[in-house]
Amino acid sequence: MTDFAALLAADRGQSARPIHLVDKDSFGDWVRRRPAEDRALLEANRFDGKTGYARVVLPRGNAFEVVSTVANVDDLSPWCLAKLSDSLPEGTYRLAEGQPGKAALGWLLAQHRFDTFKSKPEDAERGPRVLVTGEAAAVDPAVRLATATALVRDLVNTPALQLGPAELEQAVRDRLSGTGADIAVTKGDALDTGYPLIAAVGGAAVDDRAPRLIEAEWGKPDHPRLAIVGKGVCFDTGGLDLKPGSGMRLMKKDMGGAAHALALAWLVIAARLPVRLHLLIPAVENAVSGAALRPGDVVKSRQGLQVEIDNTDAEGRLILADALAKAAEAGPELIVDFATLTGAARIALGPDLPALFVTDDDLAGQIEAGARQADDPLWRMPLWDAYDEMLKSDVADLANASGSPMAGAVTAAMFMKRFLPDGLPWAHLDTFAWRDSAKPGRPKGGEALGLRAVFAALQNRFTA
Predict the structure, then answer these.
(1) E strand intervals along 179-331
(2) How far apart are CA 345 and CA 430, in angstroms?
(3) pLDDT tens digits, one per residue of 194-244
(4) Which of 229, 286, 446, 461 has the fewest beta carbons closer than 10 A?
(5) Catalytic residue chosen out of the listed positions 129, 153, 317, 346
(6) Can 317 be counted among the known catalytic residues?
(7) What ranges do the domains of the chain cover?
(8) What would the mean pLDDT of 166-180 be, rounded to a whole number?
């Protein structure tokens, strides 16, 4: 993984090339203060401080300065320096005025590449671009956020051939190694009896691809208990309700919820938040074989509810139901889960906005405030009790999917809610974990969506 700590440095008087940031309101005053040769060069490049992203290199003998446009010099976004970081020559830079703040994230992530499977990495010969900040205390948090985001991207981008349930288990062990977290894995007969929904969904896969529940605990036992749960479907064929080829193409990313959960757990530990952390990742492959779950089957859940399988492609909510039930048994103060759960959420909100479902208005407000604070948008959706009837079954306590094409994201969340006790604060993020097209600092492929918002909310909640 990229060494982000080498790309962001505290200001200790080191030599650095200045970066001047301007916007449409500040450009006029700024340019009037520049030397005549600078004004001539800016005019020759038709640089007006307001035409989208633009930058001009201003020569200074054997060195140079940089001027670049941003949307608002007084409120830098996380991504306003990403294009510069990706395009400037290697070297050390600092903002001529102000501090990078949130923009440090884009500077760091713009230099990250997922090139594990390329024989000739694109940037093999290119050196780093280091950003200097006077806010020394901001270096470590920015590096941690970049590291966590890159972890999500790398895990989601990894093909299923190289990332099955066993490899996902190893990823948890590797990332939490040295943190003091205790890791436990349930599989085989113990999974069959203790977590029957997880076992049933993953039952068609064998050997290293056999299903398991991965758990980690960290922190002092007397601290408030926080459970983080992530959907770990390492590949989703749809099961016997087989997806078409177009729908299966990106299903390596169906463990994106697990990637978010692991990254969030690591951020909580790295920040030493005063919580008793419980991470739960049900890891399966929704495969096809003679042992595959069948439409019409009835499986008794860990919590005790009997579930009729209406659709084997509605598998994520099944494995999460058992994991949520286990998390609730320990009496947590709150539970947060991430899942690449429904296409309905993407139809409603598009790829950029995770759908947020929350049982507690105060918790919803905290997460929405965290989203604004971190510039990591999401959108609250309703847990509409009237739609619970869409999950009725003629032969069991409930079905895992609705026969209606409507409200798919809501009914999925309502299904999961049935496995939690009333009154327990719970937040569910139905996230895409993917970017279909590239933007500065955000390449096409796996993406962390909602991670920074929830982490900001947890920081505010547990350190206030």
Answers:
(1) 182-187, 212-218, 225-230, 232-236, 276-286, 298-300, 306-308
(2) 7
(3) 999 999 999 999 999 999 999 999 999 999 999 999 999 999 999 999 999
(4) 461
(5) 317
(6) yes
(7) 4-134, 143-463
(8) 98
d(Cα 158, Cα 254) in Å, to the nearest integer?
Answer: 11
- Torsion sign across C-alpha atoms 230, 327, 391, 283: positive
pLDDT digits (tens, 9 = 90+) for 239-289: 999 999 999 999 999 999 999 999 999 999 999 999 999 999 999 999 999
Q: Where are the alpha helices (DSSP H) in 375-425?
A: 408-417
Strands 212-218 and 276-286: antiparallel
Report yes or no: 133 and 99 within 8 Å, Cβ to Cβ: yes
Average pLDDT, the chain: 96
Q: What is the DSSP letter of 442?
A: B
The CA distances from residue 161 to 4, 157, 158, 251, 256, in Å, are 28, 12, 8, 12, 16
CATH 3.40.630.10 fits 143-463, yes or no: yes
Q: Which of 24, 243, 300, 380 is catalytic?
A: 243
Per-residue burial over 297-316, b = 16 or more CB atoms within 10 Å of its CB, e = otherwise:
eebebbbebebbbbbbbbbb
Instruction: Give the number of other CB atoms < 10 A from CB of residue 86.
Output: 17
User: Quick check: 250 and 162 in contact, CB under 8 A?
Assistant: no
Task: Please report how many Cα atoms fall inside a 13 Å half-sphere around the Cα of residue 166, on the Cβ side.
Answer: 9
| 239 torsion bin: left (phi>0), alpha (psi -120 to 50), beta (else) | left
Which residue bears the tokens 């948890």?
Answer: 172
Q: What predicted TM-score, i.e. pTM, was given to this entire model?
A: 0.97
Is 243 annotated as catalytic?
Answer: yes
Query: How many Cβ atoms sit within 10 Å of the Cβ of residue 8?
Result: 21
Closest CA to 420 of 379, 359, 461: 359
Residue-by-residue DSSP string for 219-258: S-TTSPEEEEEE-EEEEE--TTSPPPHHHHTTGGGGGHHH
Statement: residue 68 has pLDDT above 80: yes
Are 87 and 130 in contact by the 8 Å Cβ rule? The answer is no
> What single letter denotes the amino acid at residue 336?
V
**464 Cβ contact partners less than 8 Å away, ≥ 6 residues apart:** none
Instruction: Identify the H or E element spanning 10.
Output: strand 8-10
d(C-alpha 67, C-alpha 440), whole Å: 17
CATH T-level fold of 4-134: Leucine Aminopeptidase, subunit E; domain 1 (3.40.220)
Cβ of 180: how many Cβ atoms within 10 Å? 10
